[in-house]
Amino acid sequence: MLVGDDWAEDHHDMEVMDGSGRRLAKARLPEGVAGMARLHAIVGELAGDEADEVEVLVGIETDRGPWVRALVAAGYTVLAVNPLQASRFRDRLGVSGAKSDAGDAHVLADMVRTHAHELRPVAGDSAAAEAVKVVARTHKTLIWEGTRHTQRLGHALRDYFPAALVAFEDLDAADSLELLAKAPTPAQAARLTIGQISTALKHARRKNVAGKAVAIQAALRAEQLGQPQVVTDAYAASVQALIAVLEVLNTQVKTLQGQVKAHFGKHPAAKIILSRPGLGTVLGARVLAEFGDDPGRYASAKARKNYAGTSPITRASGKKKVALARLIHNDRLIDALLTQAFSALRLSPGARAYYDRQRARGSGHNAALRQLANRLVGILHGRLKTGTVYNETTAWSHHAESVAA
Question: Over the chain, what HEC string results?
């Protein structure tokens, strides 16, 4: 029995079909317990006395959330369908471009009927891994939000207070935010004393306070292009609002970082992940969160690399064959893996030698770093499979032998 489940914010459009493609039922189910109970009732009515012998496959465009967990707990085989896959499959069934929730449910059910062997079952990650994912993702999201708000702050200052961009190297730093909040206009900033600036620098635990205070004061008092006073006041109000948001974000990032460390430290795989070069607690937590910990999710190192997006894709046509980077990938995971690879260059002689060999073959920095990240994913897969910590000699012995040969 095949079920297509198109999820919306407050309901699920569902279609049930058999192996021949014949529609058995369709319904719009409410979100929550009531909707799940109705789904069980429909499946039970259709299965009848043979309920124990009927296999139910569910296609849905998400792999997480209470609804998905309830489906898995009920014994259904849940297949996560990438929205891009569903979109392209929809185009095969019709070229008009029409789209509806009910139509999407039909597409998902038909995909499960014809391509179940090519779809990925929802991973059975542990509750501990799910907890790490929740806090690690929120932590990274807040960091991204802080970056966006810092950029907005910089754009605003450039329009009415360019001297601030010269005075403060890091706009999101505690001392920069404190001084800008105290003096958000050029006139107010020019009146800041060495003592006031020094106090802010000491609060941020800066070194060479005296020298930096003099440099900041000089930059704030330098001549600059400005705006009419009424416009300057409007910008100052906007800047103070951005500063307030950034201060809250900075506080919550630190708070959540503690939660990330606490949850990750309790996970059984933490020791293995932390043994690898370039992975600290926060970065290691992100890697665990995005890969998950279902032992059967990745059949091989290649499967893990493909999911990571570090392995290349090959495009071949006639005599032309090229290997390209994967543009479709998990942004959070690839960000963590490339950061790890860059850090590993100074921490692991094997990683450094592998990177240098890629550069010697003509690869640019980004391509060589991606290849190193790909190799490190393979090493991680082996360590997790065997339950052993990273060993520098063992990890790179094969490549060392290949070069020597």
Answer: CEEEEEECCCEEEEEEECCCCCEEEEEEEECCHHHHHHHHHHHHHHHHHHHHHCCCEEEECCCCCHHHHHHHHCCCEEEECCHHHHHHHHHHHCCCCCCCHHHHHHHHHHHHHHHHHHCEECCCCCHHHHHHHHHHHHHHHHHHHHHHHHHHHHHHHHHHCCHHHHHCCCCCCHHHHHHHHHCCCHHHHHCCCHHHHHHHHHHCCCCCHHHHHHHHHHHHHCCCCCCCHHHHHHHHHHHHHHHHHHHHHHHHHHHHHHHHHHHHHCCCCHHHHHCCCCCCHHHHHHHHHHHCCCCCCCCCHHHHHHHHCCCCEEEEECCEEEEECCCCCCHHHHHHHHHHHHHHHHHCHHHHHHHHHHHHCCCCHHHHHHHHHHHHHHHHHHHHHHCCCCCHHHHHHHHHHHHHC
Strand partners of residue 13: 6, 28
Residues of the chain above pLDDT 90, percent: 55
Rounded to 5 degrees, φ, ψ at 77 are -85, 115
* Residues whose CB falls within 8 Å of the CB of residue 4, separated by 6 or more in sequence, listed in order: 14, 15, 17, 58, 59, 104, 105, 106, 107, 108, 109, 110, 111, 112
Q: Which residues contact 115 (CB under 8 A, 6 or more apart)?
A: 89
pLDDT recorded at residue 118: 77
Q: Which residue has the tokens 């290949």?
A: 402
Query: Which pLDDT belongs to residue 344?
Result: 95
pLDDT single digits (tens) 263-289: 999 999 999 999 999 999 999 999 999
Which among 253, 33, 45, 287 is positioned nearest to 150, based on CA atoms?
A: 253
- Model pTM score: 0.80
CA 154 – CA 141 distance, rounded (Å): 20
Using CA atoms, how far apart are residues 402 and 382, in angstroms rounded to an integer?
A: 19
